[in-house]
TrEMBL record:
Family recorded in the similarity comment: Belongs to the glycosyl hydrolase 43 family.
Signal sequence interval, chain numbering: none
Database matches in InterPro entries: Glyco_hydro_43, Glyco_hydro_beta-prop_sf, Glycosyl_Hydrlase_43_Enz
MF-aspect GO terms: hydrolase activity, hydrolyzing O-glycosyl compounds
SUPFAM superfamilies: Arabinanase/levansucrase/invertase (SSF75005)
Protein name (database record): Glycosyl hydrolase, family 43
Taxon lineage: Bacteria, Bacillati, Actinomycetota, Actinomycetes, Bifidobacteriales
């Protein structure tokens, strides 16, 4: 690759959760919903897309707005929100975008001649008599579409949601919330051809006990087998299931990724998570025999500012030729193709691990900003520049805020740390509750998450200006003697008074 890739892989200030990746031509395109930093709800922006060359997943290009909320005739005022979409190439060679309007209970379709749009409204998924799907009593709840056009040009639409939505939101209709469903569409991409079928029950036989379906349907076909990716009821993980047929016979495959590394060694549950959890949603990408999982992380002590991340998957084929995937660890290097270089300046917002002295927590549920007031979090220095309104790539400076005594930010992985002679951090400090003077303490840099194998201790003190008013750089010599010959993680632990915001670090 020509340059390094990081997680999140899009520029600071861009919030695209639910990203579905596809290779069209010689580029990878992502299609997701579109959060706005500081917004009180999910997905308030219009759809945009980004793309990167297949051979360089560090070089993402903003393709602009591809579909606006008010293009759908049932949303002319733009009051309904565009939730997680999916895209496929239809039998006619055009690109079809499927979307659900928040909790309205209907599925819209738009079409374009190019993967970057612009997309135009095509119709709503409906029965042959014109009745909209989701308008009949007993229909399942149309939500989080996943669409697949098979090799024989048959069109399958996957959908589903775990938690019943209040009847007032669905117009009083009694809809199905029993898990994940599938139905077949006609070649026009909007007319239902076969009745919907419960494919992934959320309870009972076939429900993938412990990892039951919650939402986020996503389907891929590789080497004549079907791989279904979904978010489980645990909500912080993406799982997969495999079958030889698109509408039955799926077997649970395992977890692809958890945004808190839950399920990996040392992280048995959310109480021991490596990062703050909440919902995640995404898809799978294959380039040659390399596979990747795309997902999103939570920021700003909120469920409403989610950022796009990705990891390479460890893939093997079993005796039947089925691809099997090990759970990926969340990292800072994501799509880089290997560890980051152990020199240079790195933004703190690429931390893949973050927790307080009391561990991490969930960003959904009741009042997370109050409940997690003493915890560190990712944030940014200004409001969004909304690409839909400004026509430009968003620009913002991200950092980790509110690192108090015992807070840890972890970065994985680096090569060449055995050559580092000094480390500096750019931070700003804030007074603690009842403190008389500026915050001060030490930033301890170690190779182990528990603070073991310390390689630097950096004194952090406010300057002559009032604490919290300005960023300042602080450095110290490094002792890399504990670094081995394998890629290493770096953990920055703050020990001291008050709180600290962490902007970046430099390895010299």
């Amino acid at each position: 690759m020509s340059s390094q890739a990081f997680n999140p892989y899009l520029p600071a200030g861009e919030y695209i959760p639910d990203a579905e990746p596809y290779v069209f031509g010689d580029r990878v395109y992502i299609y997701g919903s579109h959060d706005r930093f500081g917004a009180p709800m999910f997905c308030v922006n219009d759809y945009v897309t980004w793309s990167a060359p297949v051979g360089d997943l560090s070089d993402w290009r903003y393709e602009g707005v591809i579909y606006r909320k008010n293009q759908d005739p049932k949303n002319r005022l733009g009051l309904r929100l565009l939730f997680a979409p999916d895209v496929t190439v239809g039998p006619d060679g055009r690109y079809y975008l499927y979307y659900a309007f928040d909790f309205m209970g209907l599925m819209g379709v738009a079409v374009a001649d190019h993967p970057a749009g612009p997309f135009e409204f095509h119709g709503h998924v409906h029965y042959p008599d014109g009745t909209l799907w989701g308008r009949r009593k007993g229909d399942s709840f149309p939500f989080d579409p996943g669409v697949l056009v098979d090799d024989d040009n048959r069109v399958y639409l996957y959908s589903g949601f775990y938690t019943p939505v209040p009847a007032i939101a669905t117009g009083g209709r009694e809809l199905g919330f029993d898990g994940g469903y599938v139905l077949e569409l006609e070649a026009d991409m909007v007319t239902i051809k076969t009745p919907e079928k419960l494919l992934f029950p959320k309870s009972g036989p076939g429900s993938f006990a412990g990892h039951e379906f919650f939402e986020a349907s996503s389907m891929r076909k590789y080497d004549d087998r079907y791989y279904f990716v979904y978010s489980s009821r645990l909500n912080h993980e993406l799982c997969y299931a495999v079958s030889d047929r698109p509408t039955e016979g799926f077997e649970f495959g395992g977890t692809l990724v958890s945004i808190g590394d839950v399920g990996l060694e040392g992280h048995t549950d959310e109480k021991t998570a490596s990062n703050y959890t909440g919902n995640t949603h995404g898809g799978m990408l294959r380039i040659g025999d390399d596979f990747y999982t795309f997902y999103h992380r939570q920021t700003n002590r909120s469920s409403y500012a989610r950022q796009a991340c990705a990891e390479k998957l460890e893939a093997t084929r079993d005796e039947r030729g089925v691809w099997r995937f090990a759970q990926a660890e969340v990292t800072s290097c994501g799509l880089n193709g290997g560890p980051l270089r152990g020199k240079g300046i790195y933004e703190a917002c690429i931390a893949c691990n973050l927790w307080s002295a009391d561990g991490a927590g969930r960003y959904d549920g009741s009042n997370p900003k109050k409940r997690l007031a003493a915890h560190p979090y990712f944030t940014q220095d200004r409001r969004d520049v909304n690409p839909a309104a400004a026509g430009a790539t968003p620009v913002a400076k991200q950092y980790i805020a509110n690192m108090r005594d015992g807070a840890v930010a972890g970065f994985k992985y680096f090569d060449g740390l055995d050559q580092v002679s000094s480390i500096s951090v750019t931070v700003r400090t804030h007074k603690g509750d009842g403190a008389r003077g500026p915050a001060q303490g030490v930033m301890r840099v170690s190779l182990d998450p528990d603070g073991g194998r310390v390689i630097a201790e950096i004194p952090v003190r406010a300057g002559e200006s009032a604490a919290g008013e300005a960023w300042g750089a602080h450095g110290a010599p490094a002792d890399p003697s504990a670094v081995g010959d394998r890629p290493s993680a770096l953990y920055f632990t703050y020990r001291g008074e008050g709180s600290m915001d962490f902007q970046s670090f430099e390895l010299n």
